[in-house]
Design goal:
The chain is α/β, with parallel strands linked by helices. The protein is built from 13 helices and 21 strands. Helix content is 34%, strand content 22%. It has a 6-stranded parallel β-sheet with strand order 2-1-3-4-5-6, sandwiched between helices. The chain is globular, with a radius of gyration of 23 Å. Bound molecules: S-adenosyl-L-homocysteine (SAH), iron/sulfur cluster and FE3-S4 cluster.
Length: 461
Amino acid sequence: MNPTESSTITRSNRKRLHVITWGCQMNVYDSARMADVLAPLGYAPAETPDGADMVILNTCHIRDKAAEKVFSELGRLRRLKESRAAEGGRMILAVAGCVAQAEGQEILTRAPYVDLVLGPQTYHRLPEMVARAARAGGAVIDTEFPAEQKFDHLPDEAAPQGLTAFLTIQEGCDKFCSFCVVPYTRGAEQSRPAAAVLAEARRLVAQGSLELTLLGQNVNAWRAEGPDGRDWGLGRLLRALAEIPGLKRLRYTTSHPRDMDEALIAAHRDLPMLMPFLHLPVQSGSDRILAAMNRKHTAADYLRVVERLRAARPDLALSSDFIVGHPGETEADFAATLALVREVRFAQAFSFKYSPRPGTPAAGAPAQVAEADKDRRLQALQALLREQQAAFNAGCVGLTLPVLFTGPGRHPGQVVGRSPFLQPVHVTGSAGLIGVEESVRIAAAHPNSLSGTPLQEKLRA
Ligand code: SAH
Ligand code: SF4
Ligand code: F3S
């Protein structure tokens, strides 16, 4: 927050802002930035929606279930908004994010008590929208894809994100996979200039962040002019970021297999601070389904990329996304997915039943898969992935891993951090570990985490 402006916010005009976030990490980043945009207007974060002056739902449209949650949450907030009004106050209710972009009008029809609807590309205009909503009787809607880039219109001031921070460097998608809403909700691929990314990264590190995760729907499609006037790709950008003093760890997500170029693979070889964990969605192991999905890569292409990555960084742990039951998927196609999983051996992965999304090509395809088949395939795939995750975690027992500790654990006297492979690691240790990267001898593996003992005597409990 700008200090001169914050000093003009007195206790009486301070307002409470509650933000509820669903969806991907890009929404988490956007929620933080919306709070930054609203801070000069006197809005300070509030833990609960009770008595809030403004509530923002930052929404996700990726699957049907995600979108439906928004409407049930709106029903609950309506009652809070009414009781606030009965007390003579006002709660501004805003719906932001990908459901707002895709279903703006429907939100206003189904929930006319909503004051503001804004898409992911317009949140820099929030102050103006809030002012209009405060004046106007009706709702304000802004789901344009404006010519100006929102990033150029965000305040330089931002609340610190803590020891680990997200930094959006790329937005949108031009790939149009058959099943996916993202190209419609986030618009065309856009990369932020390298200088802006580097400046934001330096600010985050100055504010205390030790680990940065670069974000984008297609983060490895990032391409922009570097400070040297040359054309930079993600590999080059990572090298520049690795030089920021005080920064300990770098990650990026989510990547598309097609954009995994030589320079990026070389960055995995050359930069120890680029963590050996990569989320690289493949969706299916069947070439027929990959073609129907418009993924523009085959199973063999994916395996080849994995091979090159592992040659560059032998300890690289892989994660992925899978969809079962895409229109046209047969038992043989599904068997090809299981075969690919067996070949790669994932450290973890996400898997979903295909969910038809309005307006996407696959939703209208004739050969929709029966729900019972989707259920059965998802269970089989998840059992295999769980087995692989357990094996990966078990393989860490006995190793000494650097863990970046970020906070207290669930039990008293415990602290928790992340391994290089993104596993949560619990240790019994002093709070002095928080904010420190420390070697931990891994003693036990659990389904989704590890536990162990910090090597340094003085940091043990
Ligand atoms: N940009 C990333 C992923 C974006 S969405 C990529 O290209 O891989 C995150 C994940 O949600 C996708 O990887 C996919 O597995 C899943 N997903 C997207 N649309 C879906 C749908 N209609 N039904 C089920 N899962 C879906
Ligand atoms: Fe969606 Fe495909 Fe784009 Fe990923 S690459 S965001 S799955 S359209
Ligand atoms: Fe969801 Fe939009 Fe992210 S649809 S996954 S919030 S890009």
